[in-house]
Design goal:
The complex is a heterodimer of chains A (462) and B (355). Chain A is 71% helix and 0% strand. Chain A is mainly alpha-helical and 462 residues long. By secondary structure, chain B is of the alpha/beta class. In chain B, the strands form five sheets. Chain B has a five-stranded parallel sheet, sandwiched between helices. In chain B, strand 3 and strand 4 form a beta hairpin. The chains are: A mainly alpha (462), B alpha/beta (355). Chains A and B meet through helix 1, helix 2, helix 9 and helix 19 of A and helix 1 and helix 6 of B.
Amino acid sequence: MVFSQLEFLLFLVVVLAMTWMCRTKVTRNSYLVLASYYFYAYWDVRFCALLVFSTLVDFYVARKIHRNDDYPTRRRWLYVSLASNLGVLAFFKYFNFFLASANLALAPLGISTTTLAIVLPVGISFYTFQTLSYTIDVYRRRLAPVTSLLDFSLYVAFFPQLVAGPIVRATELSPQLARVPDFSRRRFYGGAQQLLRGAVKKVLLADRLGEAVDVVFAGPDLYSGWTLWLAALAYTGQIYYDFSGYSDMAIGIAKMLGYRFPVNFRHPYTATSLTEFWHRWHMTLSRWLRDYLYIPLGGSRGSAAMRYRNLLLTMTLGGLWHGAAWTFVVWGLLHGLGLVIERAFRDLKSPMQPLIRPARWLVTMLVVLVGWVLFRSTDFSQAGIFLTRMFSASDGIDWFPPLVIGALVCLFIEHAAWRTRLRLAMRLPATAWYSPIATAIMLWALVLYAPQGFRPFVYFQF
Amino acid sequence: MLGDPLRLVQRWMIGLVIGTLLIASSSPLFVRSYLPRSFDPIRQVWTLPQGKVYRWRSEGFANSFVGPMGMPGVRVELDGTDNSMPHLAFWGDSQAEGVGVSDDDKIFAISERLGSQSSRPWRVYPLARSGDDASDWIEQFPRVETALRIDAHVILVTELLDLDPAADFQSRADSQTDASKDVSRNQQQLSAWLPAFLLQAGRNLLFDDDKLRQLRFSLGPAKSPQPAVAVTSEAPVDPDSESDHWHNVCRGFRAHTELPVILLYAPQVPVIMSGKVYRDIDDERRYEALSQAASDTGLALVDLRREFIDSARQGAWPHGFHNGQIGVGHLNTIGNTIVAKTLLIWFQRGIRASS
């Protein structure tokens, strides 16, 4: 089930009504677990078994870790969790990728293998990271294990964040699930507004941009350099509105149910460095990678070379997390290199560091834009054609869809307004005179101007 | 705190109404119009209502004035006694109707303009309607010939499939005429009374790809829909039968009019699909068979594919719009101009040959 489906709207109405009717924590959480499993089973009931497996393994492993003071035993139990979570992820997400890559390498030797027909379970990258963080936090003694299997099942399967995040840590969510939240009209209204805002971002902006992006990326050799620039910008807008729209919807739904999720996006295209970009883009993944990969690798400790290695490794693996393809790996590497260069300039106190702010913004956005072309391309050949033609102002079909340009203007205005006093107004406070007008316009626009056809969220494939 | 609930509710009610009004007033910029159809007594078919303006927004951005007999873009009164210039009836489907371009850029308008600039002006009547095929055109031939003093029928053929009904066309029984077709009373009343944005909203909510929306609440994986059966011509494939079929099609036209019939073959080429350019979408053997049959039965067949392909090679794509997709969809102003110019050149050649 996808947030932008009509079915989901009806599902949500029922879930909200029933949830707020539940008086005890057990009934409420039981009901939410059932609803969450139904939400997942709507896509494919068979993969609910994976959720159950992940839940049971981490619930019991965390308890074992907590009960043991013996370091090697604790570590062995941690490995059990890592092996089972990463094993499932490796099999479902990366098995064919590694096999195909091995095939390429072994082909000159006359050795070939076949790939398997594996369906990628929706959201596996997200809930795996979530359960891993729980077990690691218990191992690090930063968190006491959850005592109720029901609460933990809800933490893993909670439907607003199940399939595409935000990656909510147990330290943030499990204390909230341990009690029945008080109903707050203000919070409910805020959640509903955020849900609506997310729907507008996804359906009206991301999907509209996606229509043009799909066409141009399918045949970059047909289009002019200017159209390719527009398509690259359109994808920049599409992926932001798609994912931040999903996050807004997830956070909004959680709010309506009485829970608080961490922020996932903070207008990333205002960033004037890649470091800042990653503090604003998919923030819950960035901090996961920082806390569970970069810091364990050594983080900022040690020599400059070690720091750069850690950065490169973290970003490359972060790229691979997004998808089982070399384009994602190189995308991660590109960002890693960018971060290393930024860090090097900072370390050397280079005179180039204090570039004027607009220039830094421009350079940052250029790297991000080139990265998105790689990210969106199906292979290096497509990315190569796209980038070469884009930067050589090639001839071809000039296609400038006005609604795409309009959506990009929205992107620009939204980011610019966020830095002004309009930032608060954009949240549409219930008492402000303009809120009902803007709400009516958004609701009507969703019904009237949504592109035809179903378009899933981009991050579902990860 | 949200303040005084009653005042808040009042404020929200007023605000929601204002927001709705803003959407309603701006909707003509983005939403097509829904006009109730009117029955034309001469053509005996349902057409757009005369004197109204028809908006089209999704592919192209144009307002079409609906002239007499439901002809989009025609702003002159019909004069059946005017003998000063030849009169052409221009038939086809939505590609020929051209509601995505302004009235001045429709095929008939460009044709008339080019004609008046040349030595032989002519009057072109745009009688094409979206969704029409050979049976609709043939049926209307005799009705308009007298009323509009037609000298020739020109048919824009975008798919060979559209010609097939001519092969076995019989005058339709009363129950099958356009007059009896279901332009339902409810639909008519809704179009007449409800603003277009409400109709559009209802349509978007209730329909999905023109089919009634069906919600699914069962557990997945969802059963994939049966693969759509490709719509193909029922015309036989062996060369003799192919030839017979197209001879029957051409005889079908010939049997219902004694006037010259000119078929303008204007398929959607070149077309961009999945990032590739396709320059041929119909079976060439079928076209060759049609060409032979047209020649044998005295129909003229004009092939526009070369002109379309050459134009696209020069960067001027005949199909598609910026708010749709270039290289896909309906004829744009460039395509319409190519059609009109080709028609004019063909007629001038014909006149020279006959003189």
